[in-house]
Write a structure and sequence with these properties.
heterodimer; A: 445 residues; mainly alpha; Fumarate Reductase Iron-sulfur Protein, Chain B, domain 2; 20 helices; 62% helix; B: 259 residues; alpha/beta; Rossmann fold; four-stranded parallel beta sheet; 43% helix; globular
Chain lengths: 445, 259
C-alpha cells in the first residue's frame, strides 16, 4: 500500500512538473517572437530592482493595507513551499514528517509559523474575494474583466483558501493521531501545532482509521492541488507570481519620459539632410533589403520585453484606475492593452503550433486594440508609474501609434494639421515663424 | 526691457550663460506669453546673462513624436540640434516641461548634449542663493495655493519638490490635491491631445482635474507647464470659478512677489 502511494506520487509529480516545464518553454518561445532588444545593462540597478520591486513588492506599498495582505499571501506562498518540499520528499521516500527528525525544535517553530501564515493567507484571500465580489471596486467590476478573467481571479483565491484549509486539517488529523499513539503517527510526537490544534474538537468524534483517511486525503489533495495549480498558472493571470521576477530584473531603466529612439528613421532623416552621407546605390543589380516596419502592427513588431510584460500582467487594474483617459470614460484601458497583447500572442502561438510556423491569419494586434483606444492616451505615464511589476502599456501604445501614422498615414484631421504646421511653420499652430519673438519685441517698446 | 537673442550675443563676440528656450506655447499662445514675459522679467531683474533664439527657435518635435510621427520629430530634432551646436549652447532653461523632457532625455541620443534645467528648478536655486528676494508680505502671503504636477516634470523626470519649495517661499498656505506628486492626474494635454478633440468619454480630463483642484479650496492653482495652464484655465471657466480662482504659473507668482 505504502509503495503504491510512493509510485503514484512520483508519477503525479513527474507528470505535473514535465507538463509545466513544456508549457513554460512554449511561453518563452512566444515571448521571443518579439524583436530582440538588450535589457542587460547596469546589472547593479537590475539586481536592486529585483530585490525591491519583486521580492520587496515596493510598488504595492503605495496602498499599505492591501500591500500587507498581498505580502502575507506571497510570503505564505513562498514559505509554505518549504513544507511542500518535505511533502514531496515524504511522498517519494514514503516517510512521514521527514524533517522533524533532522530539525527537531526548529521544525516545530517552522510548522507553527507556517500555520500562522496559512491562516493569514486564508483571511487575506477571503478579504480579497470580498473586495472583488462584494465591495465591487471600480477596477474589479470593469468590463476589461468580463468573462474568463473575472472567474480566473476568483478561482485563484478559492484554490488558495482550499489549499490552506487542507494544510491545517492535515496537521490537525496528524496531531490527533499522535496523541492517540496510532500507528506510525505515534512515532513522531511533534505535539499540537499553534492553530490546527484548535480543529481537534471537530475531528475528535472520528475513529482513528477515519482520521488516517482524513489525514491522507488532505495530504494528497494538498499536494495534487499544488501540482494542478502549477499547471494552471500558464493559462492564468496568476503567472505573475513567477514572471514578476524577470520582469523586475529586465525593467526599463530609462526615465519614464524618454521614448524609444528609432535609429532607422533617424538614418533616413540624416540621408535626407546630408545626402552626401547616403550609401551609393547598389550597382550589382540586387535590391536593397526592405526597410523595417515603422512602429508596431502586430506582436512581431513589438520587443520581446513588451511580450514579457503581457505575460507578467496580473490584471490588477492599478494602471487603468490611474489612467486619465479611463477615468473620464474613454475607451482606453491600459490593462486591456496588456490583456489584448497576451491574447494576440496566444493566438499567434496556436497558429504556429497548428502550422509549424506562423501563417498569415489576416489579423493583427489592431484587431484587438482599436485606433480609438490608442488615440485617447495622454502619455502621462500614470499607468507605468502604478504598475507593481514594471509593465509599460505606454510603450505598446506609442509603437502602435507610430505604425498608424508612418505605415498607414492614419491620423485624425487635427493631427494632420499639427504635422503640417510643425513642418511648415515650425510650431504646432498656424502662426508665422516671424512672430515667434513678437512677445519680446513688444516688451522692448 | 530688452530680451537679448543668441544672434545678438554672437554678433558682440560674446556668449550668454544660459539659453532660455521659450517653446511654441510660450511664444505664440497669448496666455502662455504672459508666463514667458514673467520669467524673462525675473531673469532680467536677477541679472542673468541669458539669450533667446528668437525667430530661429522651432518646435522640439514633442507633440509630433508622441502622436507617432517619428519622421517629422527626427527632422525637427536634427535642425534644432544643428542650430544649438552651431551656437555652442551648453545650458538651457525652459518654461515648458515637454521641451525640458526632450532636451534632457531624447536629444542626447541624437547628438544634442546640453545641461537642461526647468524654470521652477532655476527659480528654486535663485531663491536659495538669495539672488531672488521676495517682498515682505507679498500678494500671496497666507493665500491658499495648490500645485498641479505636470506629468512631464513629475513622473517623467521626478521633479516634485522644486516647484513646491518655490511656492513655500511665497509664505502661502500650500494645500495638496489627493492625487499629487507621482499620483498626480494629467491635465489632458499630453501625448498631442492638446492638438485634437478628446476621444469620446463621460467627461473631459481637464474638467476632472480642475474639479479636484477647485475642491482643494485654493484661490490659486499653480502650474509649471503652459499646456497644463491652458487646460486648467479652461476647466476653471467651465465651473464658472474664473473670478475667484486663478490659474498661474510658478514664474508668474514669483514675478508678482519679487522685491
Amino acid at each position: 500500500m505504502a509503495i503504491l502511494q510512493q509510485i503514484l506520487f512520483i508519477l503525479a509529480a513527474g507528470t505535473a512538473i514535465g507538463l509545466f516545464s513544456k508549457k513554460i518553454s512554449l511561453i518563452r518561445r512566444n515571448i521571443l517572437l518579439g524583436k530582440d532588444e538588450d535589457y542587460t545593462d547596469q546589472p547593479g540597478r537590475r539586481w536592486k530592482n529585483l530585490a525591491l520591486l519583486a521580492f520587496g513588492q515596493k510598488k504595492m506599498f503605495r496602498n499599505p493595507l492591501v500591500a500587507v495582505m498581498h505580502f502575507v499571501i506571497y510570503a505564505g506562498f513562498i514559505i509554505i513551499n518549504l513544507e511542500v518540499l518535505e511533502i514531496i520528499l515524504d511522498g517519494i521516500l514514503g516517510t512521514h514528517r521527514l524533517f522533524y527528525g533532522v530539525a527537531g525544535s526548529l521544525y516545530l517553530f517552522l510548522i507553527n509559523g507556517f500555520e500562522c501564515l496559512a491562516l493569514g493567507v486564508l483571511i487575506a484571500c477571503i478579504i480579497f474575494l470580498c473586495r472583488r465580489n462584494v465591495l465591487k471596486l471600480r477596477r474589479f467590476i470593469s468590463h476589461d474583466l468580463d468573462g474568463w478573467p473575472r472567474s480566473d481571479a476568483n478561482y485563484i483565491l478559492l484554490t488558495e483558501i482550499v489549499l490552506m484549509t487542507l494544510f491545517l486539517t492535515m496537521n490537525a488529523a496528524d496531531t490527533l493521531l499522535q496523541s492517540r499513539g496510532y500507528g506510525h503517527y505515534g512515532a513522531h510526537l511533534t505535539g499540537d501545532f499553534a492553530l490546527s490544534g484548535g480543529l481537534h474538537p471537530l475531528l475528535n468524534g472520528l475513529s482513528s482509521s477515519s482520521l488516517v483517511v482524513v489525514e491522507r486525503t488532505c495530504w494528497w489533495l494538498h499536494i495534487l492541488g499544488i501540482l494542478a495549480f502549477l499547471n494552471y498558472l500558464p493559462y492564468s493571470k496568476h503567472l505573475h507570481i513567477l514572471l514578476a521576477f524577470p520582469n523586475a530584473w529586465y525593467a526599463r531603466l530609462t526615465p519614464e519620459g524618454q521614448l524609444k529612439n528609432m535609429p532607422a528613421v533617424r538614418q533616413e532623416v540624416l540621408y535626407m539632410m546630408q545626402p552626401e552621407t547616403a550609401p551609393p546605390a547598389l550597382t550589382d543589380g540586387s535590391t536593397p533589403p526592405p526597410p523595417p516596419r515603422f512602429g508596431a502592427k502586430d506582436i512581431f513588431d513589438l520587443s520581446w520585453r513588451n511580450l514579457l510584460d503581457a505575460y507578467s500582467c496580473t490584471e490588477c487594474g492599478r494602471c487603468s484606475a490611474s489612467c486619465p483617459a479611463n477615468l473620464t470614460g474613454k475607451l482606453l484601458s491600459p490593462r486591456k492593452i496588456m490583456m489584448a497583447t497576451r491574447d494576440r500572442v496566444e493566438e499567434v502561438a496556436r497558429n504556429i503550433d497548428a502550422n509549424g510556423k506562423f501563417t498569415d491569419d489576416g489579423k493583427t494586434l489592431l484587431n484587438y486594440i482599436s485606433v480609438e483606444e490608442l488615440r485617447a492616451c495622454t502619455t502621462c505615464n500614470a499607468c507605468v508609474e502604478e504598475c507593481p511589476v514594471s509593465i509599460s502599456p505606454l510603450e505598446i501604445i506609442i509603437e502602435m501609434r507610430r505604425a498608424l501614422i508612418m505605415e498607414d498615414s492614419n491620423a485624425p484631421q487635427e493631427w494632420n494639421a499639427l504635422f503640417g504646421n510643425v513642418e511648415n511653420n515650425f510650431a504646432p499652430w498656424k502662426f508665422s515663424p516671424d512672430d515667434r519673438d513678437k512677445w519680446a519685441t513688444d516688451l522692448s517698446q | 526691457m530688452q530680451v537679448p537673442t543668441m544672434a545678438e550675443w554672437t554678433a558682440k563676440g560674446e556668449s550668454p550663460d544660459i539659453l532660455f528656450w521659450v517653446g511654441c506655447a510660450g511664444s505664440f499662445d497669448q496666455r502662455a506669453q504672459r508666463i514667458t514675459v514673467a520669467f524673462a522679467t525675473i531673469l532680467d531683474k536677477v541679472g542673468i546673462r541669458y539669450a533667446i533664439l528668437g525667430k530661429e527657435e522651432t518646435c522640439t518635435g514633442d507633440p509630433v513624436r508622441r502622436a507617432g510621427n517619428e519622421f517629422l520629430f527626427q527632422m525637427m530634432a536634427y535642425q534644432n540640434i544643428q542650430l544649438l551646436n552651431t551656437y555652442n549652447i551648453k545650458k538651457i532653461v525652459t518654461t515648458c516641461p515637454h521641451c525640458f523632457n526632450i532636451f534632457r532625455n531624447e536629444y542626447p541620443a541624437l547628438g544634442g548634449q546640453y545641461e537642461v534645467i526647468h524654470h521652477t528648478v532655476l527659480l528654486q536655486q535663485l531663491l536659495d542663493e538669495g539672488r531672488i528676494r521676495l517682498k515682505e508680505g507679498g500678494p500671496y502671503k497666507g493665500k491658499r495655493i495648490t500645485y498641479h504636477d505636470s506629468c512631464y516634470l513629475g513622473r517623467a523626470n521626478h521633479i516634485y519638490e522644486a516647484p513646491r519649495k518655490v511656492l513655500e517661499a511665497l509664505d502661502a498656505e500650500l494645500v495638496e490635491m489627493k492625487r499629487c506628486r507621482s499620483k498626480g492626474l494629467c491635465c489632458g494635454a499630453g501625448g498631442a491631445q492638446m492638438f485634437k478633440e478628446e476621444e469620446k468619454g463621460s467627461t473631459r480630463v481637464n474638467f476632472e482635474r480642475s474639479e479636484e483642484a477647485l475642491a482643494s479650496g485654493a484661490g490659486v492653482i499653480a502650474s509649471a507647464c503652459p499646456f497644463c495652464n491652458t487646460m486648467l484655465t479652461d476647466g476653471v471657466k467651465h465651473e464658472e470659478k474664473e473670478d475667484t480662482v486663478k490659474v498661474l504659473d510658478v514664474a508668474e507668482l514669483i514675478a508678482a512677489s519679487i522685491a
